[in-house]
Specification:
Bound molecules: adenosine-5'-diphosphate, ligand TZD
Number of strands: 20
Number of helices: 23
Structural class: alpha/beta
Helix content: 40-55%
Length: about 575
C-alpha cells in the first residue's frame, strides 16, 4: 500500500509526487503478504491507526477489552490453524497484559506473535520518564521463544518474517515483536518499502526422523507386553489426524488422550483406555508419548502413578524434550505426521501385536469404572439443588446432537468434571487451561475458535474462571459470534460454602448473576436451576446461533478444593477444611 505524498515545496515535486509509505502501512503489507487474516488486539497510542489500516486492507481486526484476552485468542488461533496468531497491543501496560498470554502460548507450544508499539527509545533508554515507558524487549525475553525489535521502517518486513518463522518452526511458541512509535511513523519511499517485504517460504518444514531411531522404537514396541500410546496436544496441533489414527489402529495399541488431544480418536473408540486411565499408566511396560510431555500433568513419569520399570518412546519435534523427566529409550525427533508415517512404513505387518490379556485387563477395569461413574451420574441427574454432574450431563447430551461445536473449558471442578463427562469425537474441538492450568483463557479461546473455524462454540466455565475474561462477552456480542457461555455457578472458587473468618466474604466466596451481565450487551441470558433447564436453554441458543450465556445455579457445597490437584497445596498447620 502506498501513499502519494503532498509535496510541501518545489513545483517539480508537485508535478510528480513521490510515492511514499510509512511504518504502519509496511506492517500491514507484510502481514498480508504472509496471509495473516485476523489480528486480535486492543488499540491506543501508538497502534490505533495500525488497526484501522489493517481493517481497511481486508485483515479482520477483532477489538478486545483486555490484552490478555486478545492474546489468548491469538494463541488459540495458532493452535487451531498451525499459523501464528497475531496480537496487537499498546506500550508498557498493554504490552504486559498481553505478555501473560504470550508466555502461556509459549508454555503450551502454540505459535503466536505479539506486536506491541513502544515509546521513544531515546527517552526510554535514559529513563527520562516517557509516556508508557518500558524496556519491553528486555521484559519479554525471559517469557518467550524469541523477542525482536525493529529499529528502522526498512526492517519491518524482516522483523515480521523472522517473528512468523520463529513462532511456527520447530517447537512452536510465542514471539514478541517490538515496534517503536517512531518506526511506525517513519516515512520511506514506497518502492524501497515494497522491496523490503517478503513472504516466508515453508515456515514449519516437516522433520523426518532418523531411520535407525524408528527401528529402535519398533524393536521396543514389538517386545512389549502392555504397550500404551499417550496422545498429547502436540499430536492434535500437528494436524496429522489420519496418520495418528492409522498408527493406532494398525498396531492395535491402547491409547490415552491428554485433555486437548481428546477427539483425535473418538472418546468411544474401542482402543481408548481413557476409562481405565490409572490402571493403564500403572501397568504399561512400553509407553509411546506422542506430542505429550512427561511433565506434572503426567506425574513426571514417576512411580507409583507409573510402572517404575516402564520404558519410554517419545515422539517430539523438540530434541531437548527427551530425557527431561525419565530416560527415553527410543527418542523419535520429528513432526508427529512424519514420525508416525515412518513407524507405519518400517514396521512390518504383525511385528507389533498387543497381547489379548492386556486388552482384557483394561476392558475389565473400564467396565468397572464406567459402572461406578454411572451411579454418580444417575444420582446427580435428579439432585436438587443442581450438581456439577447434573448440569454437565445435560450439556453432554446437547453436544452429542451438535458435533461441530468447539468446546472451551476452564475452572477447577468445572474443568475436571467436564473433561471426564463430555466425550469428544473430533480433533481440536476441545481447548482448555492447558499446561499451566491457567484461568482466564475462556473468552479469548472461545472468540478465536468461533472466528477461525466458523463453528459454534460452547465455553464451559467455572464461575471464578469466567470472571477473569468475563468482560469479553461484550466482544462476543459486538461481533455477533455464535458463542454460548455456560457458567457452572457454585458461588465460589472451588465451592461457595466456605465460612468467613471475620464477617467479610470468605476468600473463596463469589456472587454473581452472569445471565444479567450478557443482557447488558444485547446477548441472551438464561438462568438454569435444573438439568432440564440447562438442556433446553443450550439447545435453543445453539439452534439460534447467537451470543448467549447460561448461568447454571449449582449447589454451593458441590466441588472439592482445587479439584483433583488438591495434593499440590502446601500442607502446613494453619488451615483445616
Ligand atoms: P499435553 O499437555 O497434551 O500432554 P504437551 O503440551 O505437554 O501436551 O506436549 C506437547 C509437545 O508436542 C511439546 O513437547 C511439543 O514440542 C510437541 N510438538 C508440538 N508440535 C509438534 C509436532 N508438529 N510434531 C511433534 N511434536 C510436536
Ligand atoms: N489465577 C490464574 C491466572 N490461574 C489460576 N489457576 C488461579 C488463579 C488459581 N485457580 C485455579 O487453579 S482454579 C481457580 C483459580 C482461581 C478457579 C476455580 O473456581 P471456579 O471452578 O469457579 O472457576 P469450580 O468449578 O468452582 O472449581
Amino acid at each position: 500500500m502506498t501513499v502519494a505524498s503532498t509535496p510541501e515545496t518545489g513545483a517539480e515535486h508537485a508535478a510528480s509526487p513521490a510515492a511514499l509509505t510509512d511504518g504502519i502501512h509496511l506492517v500491514v503489507d507484510a502481514l498480508r503478504q504472509n496471509d495473516v487474516e485476523t489480528v486480535y488486539g486492543v488499540v491506543g497510542i501508538p497502534i490505533t491507526d495500525l488497526a484501522r489500516v489493517a481493517q481497511a486492507s481486508g485483515i479482520r481486526y477483532i477489538g478486545f477489552r483486555h490484552e490478555s484476552d486478545a492474546g489468548h485468542a491469538a494463541a488459540a488461533a495458532g493452535f487451531l490453524t498451525k499459523k501464528p496468531g497475531i496480537c496487537l497491543t499498546v506500550s508498557a501496560p498493554g504490552f504486559l497484559n498481553g505478555l501473560v498470554a504470550l508466555a502461556n502460548a509459549t508454555t503450551n507450544c502454540f505459535p503466536m506473535v505479539q506486536i506491541s508499539g513502544s515509546s521513544e527509545r531515546h527517552l526510554v533508554d535514559l529513563q527520562r520518564g516517557d509516556y508508557e515507558e518500558m524496556d519491553q524487549l528486555a521484559a519479554a525475553k525471559p517469557f518467550v521463544k524469541a523477542a525482536y525489535r525493529v529499529q528502522r521502517a526498512e526492517d519491518i518486513g524482516r522483523g515480521i518474517a523472522r517473528a512468523l518463522r520463529t513462532a511456527a518452526s520447530g517447537r512452536p511458541g510465542g514471539v514478541y515483536l517490538d515496534i517503536p512509535a517512531a518506526v511506525l511513523g517513519e516515512v520511506i519511499d514506497a518502492e524501497q518499502g515494497a522491496r523490503s517485504l517478503w513472504r516466508v517460504v515453508d515456515p514449519a518444514p516437516r522433520q523426518l526422523p532418523e531411520p535407525a531411531a524408528v527401528d529402535r522404537a519398533i524393536e521396543l514396541l514389538s517386545s512389549a507386553e502392555r504397550p500404551l500410546v499417550v496422545l498429547g496436544k502436540g499430536a492434535a496441533y500437528a494436524q496429522a489426524d489420519e496418520v495418528v489414527r492409522e498408527f493406532i489402529e494398525t498396531t492395535g495399541v491402547p491409547s490415552l488422550p491428554m485433555s486437548m488431544a481428546k477427539g483425535l480418536l473418538p472418546d468411544d473408540h474401542p482402543q481408548s483406555a481413557a476409562t481405565a486411565r490409572s490402571l493403564a499408566l500403572r501397568r504399561a511396560d512400553v509407553v509411546v508419548l506422542v506430542g505429550a510431555r512427561l511433565n506434572w500433568l503426567l506425574g513426571h513419569g514417576e512411580a507409583p502413578q507409573w510402572n517404575p520399570d516402564a520404558t519410554f518412546i517419545q515422539v517430539d519435534i523438540a530434541a531437548t524434550e527427551m530425557d527431561s523427566n525419565q530416560p527415553i529409550a527410543a527418542p523419535l525427533v520429528g513432526d508427529v505426521g512424519s514420525v508416525l508415517e515412518a513407524l507405519i512404513e518400517r514396521g512390518k505387518p504383525g511385528r507389533i501385536c498387543v497381547p489379548a490379556a492386556w486388552r482384557e485387563e483394561l476392558a475389565e477395569r473400564s467396565v468397572q469404572n464406567v459402572a461406578k461413574m454411572a451411579g454418580r451420574l444417575a444420582a446427580a441427574r435428579t439432585a436438587s439443588p443442581m450438581k456439577f454432574l447434573g448440569a454437565l450431563q445435560a450439556i453432554r447430551d446437547v453436544l452429542v446432537e451438535n458435533p461441530r461445536v468447539r468446546v472451551v473449558n476452564e475452572g477447577a471442578n468445572a474443568l475436571d468434571l467436564a473433561r471426564n463427562t463430555i466425550g469428544m469425537r473430533r480433533p481440536r474441538h476441545r481447548l482448555d487451561s492447558g499446561t499451566w492450568g491457567v484461568m482466564g483463557i475462556g473468552m479469548g479461546y472461545a472468540i478465536a475458535a468461533a472466528v477461525e473455524t466458523g463453528d459454534p462454540v460452547v465455553a464451559i466455565e467455572g464461575d471464578s474462571a469466567f470472571g477473569f475474561s468475563g468482560m469479553e462477552i461484550e466482544t462476543v456480542c459486538r461481533y455477533g459470534l455464535p458463542v454460548v457461555t455456560v457458567v457452572l455457578n457454585n458461588s465460589g472458587v472451588y465451592r461457595g460454602d466456605d465460612p468467613s473468618a471475620n464477617g467479610d466474604p470468605a476468600p473463596t466466596s463469589l456472587r454473581a448473576r452472569h445471565d444479567l451481565m450478557i443482557q447488558a450487551f444485547g446477548g441472551v441470558g438464561y438462568r438454569a436451576t435444573t438439568p432440564d433447564e440447562v438442556a433446553t436453554a443450550l439447545r435453543a441458543t445453539l439452534a439460534a446461533g447467537v451470543p448467549a450465556l447460561i448461568d447454571c445455579v449449582i449447589d454451593p457445597s458441590d466441588g472439592t478444593e482445587s479439584g483433583n490437584i488438591a495434593h499440590l497445596n502446601p500442607k502446613g498447620i494453619t488451615v483445616t477444611r
